Amino acid sequence: MMGLSSEAIGRSMACGAKRVFWAAMMMAVVLMALTLPVAMAQPAASSVTDSPTYKRGRLLYIQCRACHDLKPSPVEKVGPNLAGLFGRTSGTAPDFGYSPALRSAKITWDNKTLDTWLEKPGTMVPGNIMAFAGIANSADRAALISYIEVESASR
Ligand code: HEC
Q: Is residue 69 a contact partner of residue 75, using CB atoms and an 8 Å limit?
């Protein structure tokens, strides 16, 4: 017989299947290369830390940063460490020398109390020693408080 032997047909089919396999692999690699950066960018784009409010809060926090840390730190600043602030009673950060006024105020820090404090610390707790006049804009206070809530939470 002059035609292809069954062995040759088998070999050429295997070869064709191999080509299809590699073509599919290449497609998969290209697809992954195209979609991976998008897939990786997605969680960040929808996360809290990307919101305009968070960014505004982070900017406003620059005013507080010289005196306060939001993460536990061995370094003592001028003001008490604010790590774990939400739910904490005022004047209770360990080893900080609070004023008698803030120590005896017994405020539980949450969105509402922080808003009052940051509007005018001297009005909420007369005699406190935080050298900060306050933030008049309520939207700015809300942004700053939500930033502090995220960053001061222990993770
Ligand atoms: C010049 C330094 C300084 C700046 C600026 C400052 N603070 Fe303070 N802060 C202090 C001091 C000192 C105390 C303690 C006051 C006391 O004992 O009477 C304090 C207390 C606090 C407390 C109460 C903490 C606790 O443990 O009860 C909060 C909350 C707070 N500050 C938030 C802020 C935020 C938010 C800002 C920025 C808008 C800010 N502070 C800016 C120095 C500062």
A: yes
Burial 27-64 (b: 16+ CB within 10 A, else e): eeeeeeeeeeeeeeeeeeeeeeeeeeebebbbebbeeb
What integer pLDDT is reported at residue 148 of this predicted model?
98
pLDDT digits (tens, 9 = 90+) for 9-48: 556 556 677 788 788 888 877 777 766 665 565 555 558 8
pTM for the model stands at 0.77
**Separation of CA 110 and ligand 1 centre (Å):** 15
128 lines ligand 1 (CB under 6 A): yes
Using an 8 Å Cβ cutoff, are 135 and 116 in contact? no
Which token pair is 113?
């109390």
Domain spanning 50-152: CATH superfamily: Cytochrome c-like domain (1.10.760.10)
CA 129 vs CA 79, 91, 103, 122, 145: distances in Å: 9, 11, 11, 9, 20
φ/ψ (deg, to 5) at 108: -95, 120
Would you list the domain boundaries of the chain? 6-46, 50-152
**Smallest CA separation from ligand 1 atom 18, residue:** 128
